[in-house]
Design a protein that fits this description.
elongated; mainly alpha; Ribonucleotide Reductase Protein R1, domain 1; 5% strand; Fumarase C, Chain A, domain 2; 3 domains; two-stranded parallel ribbon
């Protein structure tokens, strides 16, 4: 069987080796770009007709042919070929077979170099919109969980040591803030994604009278690239997306870690829904938090994808190099992994059972009202550093005797400072400690309710 000549093979006397075709092909990866490739090609064809580079009749045939090819792909009738390397050449080959000479004119005034970066930008623009919505959904689910548990008090931690009592709602809303920043980062990154590269050609532009601004309007790009060399060799937009995705996974992984910790016997703060856990093949009693663990584990893939693309880009001379074909696998996998993990985190939250009594008991232990006692002394004119020392001595007594601060008698407390009066005990409950932290952004119930109102769930 004689192989078809490559669409780019005019200057070659010999055929491409079969092993090279297999090695260089990317159709197994980039076939998912078919809609974006066709959309870009339709806009390009319409521009060519507008500029009278091709006839209106030819442009109409091209557009009809491309839409027919899209239907073939979506109906599973299209035969992809590794000999045609990528999605761009597969579609172009099929177009020529369907409509003849008119199809050969589609590639006028463009290169695969500007075509592929256009497809990637169209793809990322679409997927980042979906990811932005998913981040918003997760934030709303966190806010709804916070609303359901407005009165629940838990220990707040630093260094994984009990530190001060906080509202469980306040803790959940800390993650809502993280995911809000993630959404802002994605939206800001979109500004750099949403730039039209088509028209840059291979690297130097074209001598033909194209209208790039018209193509930009057709495809919804607010800007066009300003330097043809940069346009075909730039992957900053993909790097920025991967960096933003890596930060999303820092936050997802931290949330997942706490779900794992809180659902353990040692903490016992929550129980995860059965549908998002698995059992052990050997130990009948086990309920394993597999979904949070997998979310936590997938962070390594996303971090690796960012590092891979950084490494790919760091030594490339201008302009386009075939190395850039390797940008797709990390970007595609990152998109899939971010979307799936955000969905899982969003689904698991409504089914979590909060063990309020266990949290409340933990909030009583650990001498977490020590700072409140220091604040009490400050309110009576004691300098904070002196108050800190006084309370430190009281804490030492409590540790020696195995008692909590509020279990000491007023007489015992007065030995450390005459400023301490009977009203001190009203300062030392977890409820009082939480209620008084009214500084902006603090854990006081009023602050949390206000934040929930701002988020539209209260």
């Amino acid at each position: 069987m004689v192989k078809e000549k490559k669409l780019w093979g005019g200057r070659f006397a010999g055929r491409t080796a079969g092993s090279v075709e297999a090695f260089t092909a990317s159709i197994d990866v980039d076939a998912r770009l078919y809609r974006h490739d066709i959309a870009g090609s339709i806009a390009h064809a319409r521009m060519l007709a507008k500029q009278r580079i091709v006839s209106s009749r030819e442009a109409r045939r091209i557009v009809r042919g491309l839409l027919a090819i899209q239907r073939e792909i979506e109906e599973g009738k299209f035969r992809f070929s590794t000999a045609d390397e990528d999605i761009h050449m597969n579609i172009e080959r099929r177009l020529i077979a369907k409509i003849g000479k008119a199809g050969e004119k589609l590639h006028t005034a463009r290169s695969r170099n500007d075509q592929v970066t256009l497809d990637m930008r169209l793809y990322l623009r679409e997927e980042m919109g979906i990811i932005g919505e998913a981040l918003g959904n997760l934030r709303q689910e966190l806010a709804r969980a916070a609303r359901r548990h407005l009165k629940v008090i838990m220990p707040g931690y630093t260094h994984l040591q009990r530190a001060q009592p906080v509202l469980f709602s306040h803790h959940l809303l800390a993650y809502a803030e993280m995911f809000e920043r993630d959404g802002e980062r994605m939206a800001d990154c979109l500004k750099r994604v949403n730039v039209l590269p088509l028209g840059a050609g291979a690297l130097a532009g074209t001598t033909l009278p194209i209208d790039r601004s018209y193509v930009a309007r057709l495809l919804g790009f607010p800007r066009i690239s300003k330097n043809s060399i940069d346009a075909v060799s730039d992957r900053d937009f993909a790097l920025e997306f991967l960096a933003a995705s890596a930060i999303v996974f820092v936050h997802l992984s931290r949330l997942a870690e706490e779900l794992v910790l809180w659902s353990s016997w040692e903490f016992g703060f929550i129980e995860l829904p059965d549908g998002y856990c698995t059992g052990s093949s050997m130990m009948p009693q086990k309920k394993n938090p597999d979904v949070p663990e997998l979310i936590r584990g997938k962070s390594g893939r996303i971090f690796g994808h960012l590092q891979a693309l950084l490494t790919l880009m760091k030594g490339l001379p201008l302009a386009y190099n075939r190395d850039l074909q390797e940008d797709k696998r990390p970007v595609f996998d990152a998109v899939d992994t971010v979307k799936a993990s955000l969905q899982m985190a969003t689904e698991i939250l409504p089914g979590i059972k909060v063990k309020t009594e266990r949290m409340a008991a933990a909030a009583l232990d650990g001498l977490m009202n020590a700072t409140d006692l220091a604040d009490y002394l400050v309110s009576r004119g004691v300098p904070f550093r002196s108050a800190h020392g006084v309370v430190g001595a009281i804490v030492r007594l409590c540790l020696d005797r195995g008692r909590r601060i509020e279990e000491l008698s007023l007489k015992e407390l007065k030995r450390f400072s005459p400023k301490i009066e009977k009203d001190v005990y009203s300062y030392l409950t977890p409820q009082a400690a939480v209620e008084r932290r009214r500084s902006a952004g603090g854990t006081a119930p009023g602050n949390v309710r206000q934040r929930l109102r701002e988020m539209g769930v209260l």
